[in-house]
């Protein structure tokens, strides 16, 4: 339906327009009945619909309708599967249509800076490329059903402690390379209907009132077309926020900020055109939903089956020393409270009221042969960190009598949630102790983890099997059993590094600061840090095993040399060399060898998930563009790839590179010359525009120091290093050149 929104807005009173810029209540936007503008509802729902009535709350304390809890982002990102994530979005979009919800508050794409962040279970990855591609696929799926998304939380919201006032102190390059790209990719590839701005400040300015963030970057640079909504209660100054580009404040302010807007227009401190623009953006999105609203059944059972399939394609097999898959005739002991009462979602605003939940114990009971051979022992409580001697003894004896033991371990819900961060990276002590005892009694032990973020594993070297189930959604038990018994071949890959211990994390010394959190690690987040340090990790980014094996061959680039304006096509052959069908995630990383600036050892710039029958070979093709090779140059205020050699690498994780080829990039961009008396002779010699002056001054310096050739302190490499590091001004201090000569050279350089 064609609508003239500007004409509609011209018929609204100032009070009505101001009212459109804040919520009616916790979940609804205001209506203007006389103009045919109805209320529309928004709801939490990045991994399931959490629809509450108007008396609801944002933190999940009150009830919501029964719905399907799908695997949260910590698990679904491990699918590395764009098509599956698009299908996921379509399912969520249909559920929203069935329940009269216009906008889903998600996905959440904040980077996992530290394993301690209490909300990491809602976030996709430590890697901005993976997070952006995953989010874009999900958003396209949701919005294909004419239901909006609200990508969040923009930006640099990476801790829960004091999240409503803390300032994330981050340099621009780090923002552009690590904390912005997931949002940027989603905006450019999927155009989310809304963007949710975060609570925190960024370099001292609240995200809600930062025009650089919400207008210059988000709209002017990236082309965002929807409206910006605040996180619930995130607005600090309503007028500054509106001017900065935040259109909708949620929830209702009870009319307080509506009156502030009216007063600002009346006294001239806010242009009414700014208010009109905000209202137009809000109405355009509301009518996108209203004009496409349709009857849609709420298909709970079918969606439960999809939740199972998503979990099966995402759980990560981390270790398998010929202990998996389980055989249905084997005697297996299921141990741990999570086998019967699984933890499958996180706490807080995304908490779903699941209409049913499958446990591993229930799921295996539906497998006739296997169920006869499975025994269960609780071993430990899923809620308390208490070592119960009686429960432990029963579990150890069950493990001893079995052929194999599977321990279902994990973090109690109280350990991680929205609103607070973890204080450590450990499992409950009772679980670590029992796992160690089980392994002594039964060498063929497998551990299945239920957690929203990595944990330390002191028993890792002794256990024969390990599966990272993360938080698996309400079909968690079915997915786990199908994977453990080989009904489904594992194909998930880690979307984050699992460090050996918390202290290894690059943010260890600064995470969780209360007033200002300094992101001193810069771009070296996650595997970018661990790989650059060549640090031992428990499991690297991108890692995951299968019940089959794959071989990589015939890596080829369509060109050996390109300009930064051209694309590069990369192809590689993948063969299933095992005996069962499986899926492999082909990962493409780029290494910059130019040394133009300090960069990570490698960065993910492409991936594809491919399905292969035994013996089958397929060719995987990926395309790289300028951004695939570039870093953000703050002097240029743009992305820059220096001329030189770059390695194009494909592999099975960031640590397992199978094949590599090099490409020459020829940059069309010349960096601006930064010249003054403190420019070193090495810097002059490194640029072809100034090299002749640099070599001239270096030769004069060599001649000067040559008269001290007999002095061992100034011989050989020492002399060359000294000269390279000398600023131009020191040539006068040493008497190598006169001040007039140096100033004359500098004048000629400035004329270049």
Keywords:
752 residues, alpha/beta, TIM Barrel, Rossmann fold, Immunoglobulin-like, 4 domains, six-stranded mixed β-sheet, five-stranded parallel β-sheet, 29 strands, globular
Task: Give a written overview of the molecule.
By secondary structure, the protein is of the alpha/beta class. It folds into four domains: 5-57 and 81-290, Alpha-Beta Barrel (TIM Barrel), CATH 3.20.20.300; 300-496, Rossmann fold (3-Layer(aba) Sandwich); 550-666, Immunoglobulin-like (Sandwich); 681-750, no CATH class. It has 24 helices and 29 strands. The strands form eight sheets. It has a six-stranded mixed sheet with strand order 10-16-15-14-11-13. Strand 3, helix 5 and strand 4 (148-154) form a beta-alpha-beta unit. The chain is globular. The model has no long low-confidence stretch (mean pLDDT 94).
Widest sheet: strand ordering: 10-16-15-14-11-13
**Could you tell me the number of beta strands?**
29
- CATH class annotation of the largest domain: Alpha Beta
Q: Which class best fits the helix and strand makeup? A: alpha/beta
Helical amount? 25-40%
Number of domains: 4
Quick one: biggest sheet?
A: 6 strands, mixed
Q: If you average the pLDDT, what whole number results?
A: 94
Shape type? globular
Low-confidence stretches: none
Report how far the terminal alpha carbons are from each other: 59 Å
Q: Please, what is the oligomeric state?
A: single chain
| CATH second-level architecture of the largest domain | Alpha-Beta Barrel
* Rg from Cα: 29 Å
């Amino acid at each position: 339906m064609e609508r003239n929104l500007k004409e509609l807005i011209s018929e609204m009173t100032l009070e009505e327009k101001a009212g459109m810029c804040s919520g009616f209540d916790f979940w609804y936007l205001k209506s203007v009945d006389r103009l045919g503008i109805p209320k529309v509802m928004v709801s939490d729902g990045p991994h399931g619909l959490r629809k509450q009535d108007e008396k609801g709350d944002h933190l999940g304390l009150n009830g919501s309708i029964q719905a399907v809890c799908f695997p949260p982002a910590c698990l679904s990102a491990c699918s590395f599967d764009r098509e599956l994530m698009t299908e996921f979005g379509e399912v969520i979009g249909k559920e929203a249509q069935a329940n009269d919800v216009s906008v889903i508050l998600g996905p959440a794409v904040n980077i996992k800076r530290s394993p301690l962040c209490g909300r990491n279970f809602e976030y996709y990855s430590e890697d901005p490329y993976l997070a952006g591609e995953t989010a874009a696929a999900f958003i396209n799926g949701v919005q294909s059903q004419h239901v909006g998304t609200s990508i969040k939380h923009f930006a640099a919201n990476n801790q829960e402690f004091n999240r409503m006032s803390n300032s994330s102190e981050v340099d621009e390059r780090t923002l552009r390379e690590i904390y912005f790209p997931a949002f940027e990719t989603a905006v450019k590839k999927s155009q989310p209907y809304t963007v949710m701005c975060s609570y925190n400040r960024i370099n001292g300015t609240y995200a809600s009132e930062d025009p650089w963030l919400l207008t210059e970057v988000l709209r002017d640079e990236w082309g965002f077309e929807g409206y910006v909504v605040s996180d619930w209660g995130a607005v600090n100054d309503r007028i500054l926020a509106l001017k900065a580009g935040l259109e909708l404040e949620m929830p209702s302010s009870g009319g307080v900020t509506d009156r502030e807007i009216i007063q600002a227009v009346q006294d001239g401190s806010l242009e009414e055109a700014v208010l009109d623009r905000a209202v137009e953006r809000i109405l355009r999105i509301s009518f996108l939903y209203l004009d496409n609203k349709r009857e849609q059944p709420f298909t709970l059972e079918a969606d439960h089956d999809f939740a199972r399939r998503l979990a099966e394609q995402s759980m990560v097999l981390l270790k398998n020393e010929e202990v998996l898959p389980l055989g249905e005739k084997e005697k297996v002991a299921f141990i741990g409270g999570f086998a019967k009462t699984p933890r499958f979602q996180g706490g807080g605003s995304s908490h779903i009221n699941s209409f049913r939940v499958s446990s591993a114990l229930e799921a295996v009971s539906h497998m006739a042969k296997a169920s006869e051979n499975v025994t269960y022992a609780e071993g430990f409580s899923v809620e308390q960190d208490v070592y119960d001697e009686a429960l432990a003894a029963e579990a150890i004896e069950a493990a001893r009598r079995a052929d194999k033991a599977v321990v279902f371990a994990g973090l109690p819900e109280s350990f991680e949630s929205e609103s607070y961060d973890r204080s450590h990276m450990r499992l409950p002590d009772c679980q670590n102790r029992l796992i160690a005892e089980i392994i002594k009694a039964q060498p063929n032990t497998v551990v299945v983890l239920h957690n929203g973020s990595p944990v330390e594993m002191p028993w890792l070297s002794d256990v024969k099997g390990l599966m990272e189930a993360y938080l698996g959604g309400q079909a968690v038990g079915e997915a786990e059993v199908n994977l453990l018994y080989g009904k489904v071949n594992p194909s998930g890959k880690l979307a984050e590094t699992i460090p050996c211990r918390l202290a290894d994390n690059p943010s260890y010394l600064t995470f969780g600061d209360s007033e200002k959190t300094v992101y001193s690690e810069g771009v070296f987040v996650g595997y970018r840090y661990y790989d650059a340090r060549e640090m031992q990790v428990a499991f690297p980014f991108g890692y995951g095993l299968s019940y089959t094996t794959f071989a990589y061959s015939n890596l080829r680039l369509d060109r050996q040399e390109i300009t930064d304006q051209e694309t590069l096509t990369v192809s590689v052959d993948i063969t299933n060399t095992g005996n069962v069908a499986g899926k492999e995630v082909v990962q493409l990383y780029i290494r910059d060898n130019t040394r133009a600036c300090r960069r990570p050892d490698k960065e993910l710039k492409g991936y594809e998930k491919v399905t292969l029958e035994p013996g089958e070979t397929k060719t995987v093709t990926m395309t790289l563009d300028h951004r695939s090779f570039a870093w953000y140059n703050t002097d240029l205020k743009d992305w820059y790839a220096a001329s030189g050699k770059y390695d194009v690498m494909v592999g099975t994780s960031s640590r397992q590179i199978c094949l590599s080829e090099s490409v020459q990039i020829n940059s069309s961009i010349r960096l601006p010359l930064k010249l003054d008396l403190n420019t070193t002779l090495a810097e002059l010699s490194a640029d072809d525009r100034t090299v002749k002056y640099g070599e001239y001054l270096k030769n004069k310096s060599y001649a000067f120091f040559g008269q001290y050739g007999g002095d061992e302190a100034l011989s050989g490499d020492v002399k060359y290093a000294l000269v390279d590091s000398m600023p131009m001004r020191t040539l006068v201090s040493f008497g190598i050149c006169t001040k007039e000569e140096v100033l004359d050279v500098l004048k000629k350089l400035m004329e270049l």
